[in-house]
Design brief:
Number of helices: 13
Shape: globular
Number of domains: 2
Strand content: 5-15%
Structural class: alpha/beta
Order of helices and strands: EHEHEHEHHEHEHEHHEEEEHHHH
């Protein structure tokens, strides 16, 4: 039996409302397209999804993502319906003309509790990644408007070769803006992200140790596809010191901008994995363990989500930590478990070992 608490139901469900998006980001997981697809879930099918989510004993948080969810004409009706079904609703919109103070107030009024906005670098870096001039200024404005509206704003940052040395400056920027949650995505080579180079395991290890330091400034830090940060957290709590040129450079820039840390770490010692507390529904209703792990395990148009989540052999193996290679024998497999998406991306095996972890290097 799994030692986690997510055997009966997920903590978070991501729903890809549409693949359509105005942006053309170089690392886009969804490989977004310009116009909506006729294969998207209809309004009624989406509402049926909300009913299915309500059948879990503990209603999960529903994150409406994309593409850009605001492209859907029925998005406000869907938010209201999901809220009425008892689901806490978060949204991850693209920075576009549709995202403004009026739309934020409207989202809040129909039930949105949380919103995530992507900021992947300082001015020129962010615009290079997003491939639209002026989007950096609009992103900062959207963050300010979100905080003003009363919605809890989370900033998402994807770590990649072209921006990881800017992480301390990004952290200082969002701290000064008043953001309380920073979610850092570690790149998976899927979608348009396959065009980019990952960091090395040593660089990832340096970033994780930097994030431990940054988590001591009263901002909640979360990571995506980086479960080995929980190993780093345990090692740092136990007093293990880490040193590398990259880490020292990141740490020095952090202290230069923020001063010395003044609180305990906000990192969590336990967390979720794809298929273990997380589930992803794409725009066509296909069920996946996570948004970066393209292994279909069902479709809500034909299958019951509760049954798929609880009975999928792949998800059971993930929750039972029945992994191959070093991840299967690692003493941190319950706290960490390795990125299932990265193992699949590199080796075609969702139960394989995570090549980004320095213990597997």
């Amino acid at each position: 039996m799994s030692r986690n608490s997510y055997d009966n139901g997920p903590l978070i469900v991501f729903w890809e409302t549409t693949k359509a998006c105005e942006l053309n980001c170089i690392h886009c997981r969804a490989s977004a397209i310009e116009s909506r697809s006729p294969e998207e879930l209809t309004t009624d099918e989406a509402k049926n999804l909300f009913i299915q989510l309500g059948e879990f004993s503990r209603p999960p948080v529903l994150i409406m993502t994309g593409g850009n969810p605001l492209i859907r004409d029925d998005i406000y009706d869907l938010i209201k319906s999901a809220t009425s079904a008892g689901l806490p609703v978060a949204i991850s919109p693209a920075v576009s003309q549709k995202l403004n103070y009026d739309s934020l107030i409207k989202m809040k009024n129909v039930g949105v509790k949380f919103m995530s906005i992507s900021l992947d670098g300082l001015s020129s870096t962010h615009e290079k990644i997003r491939r639209i001039n002026g989007v950096y200024k609009e992103t900062i404005e959207a963050i300010r408007y979100g905080i003003k509206s009363g919605i809890t704003v989370q900033v998402n940052t994807a770590v990649m070769k072209i921006n990881y040395l800017e992480l301390p400056m990004i952290f200082k920027l969002i701290y000064d803006l008043g953001v309380k949650i920073w979610e850092v995505f570690f790149l998976i080579q899927t979608g348009r992200g396959s065009e980019l180079l990952d960091l090395t395991p040593e660089e990832y290890e340096s970033v994780c140790n930097f994030l431990y330091d940054a988590s001591q400034y009263n901002i909640q830090i979360r990571t995506v596809e980086c479960p080995f940060i929980r190993r780093v957290l345990n090692e740092r709590i136990e007093g293990k010191n880490y040193s590398s040129y990259i880490y020292r450079r990141l740490n020095e820039e952090l202290v230069k901008g923020m001063g010395k840390p003044s609180s305990s770490s906000t990192l969590s010692q336990r967390g979720t994995l794809d298929g273990d507390g997380i589930i992803f529904i794409d725009h066509k209703g296909t069920i996946y363990p996570g948004g970066f792990l393209p292994v279909p395990i069902g479709n809500i148009r034909n299958d019951k989500l509760v049954k798929v989540y609880r009975e999928s052999p792949l998800l059971k193996s993930i929750r039972n930590r029945a992994f191959n290679g070093n991840c299967g024998s690692c003493k941190y497999k319950w706290e960490c478990g390795g990125s299932r998406a990265r193992a699949f991306s590199y080796f075609g095996d969702p139960l394989g070992s995570d090549p980004a972890c320095i213990l597997n290097a």
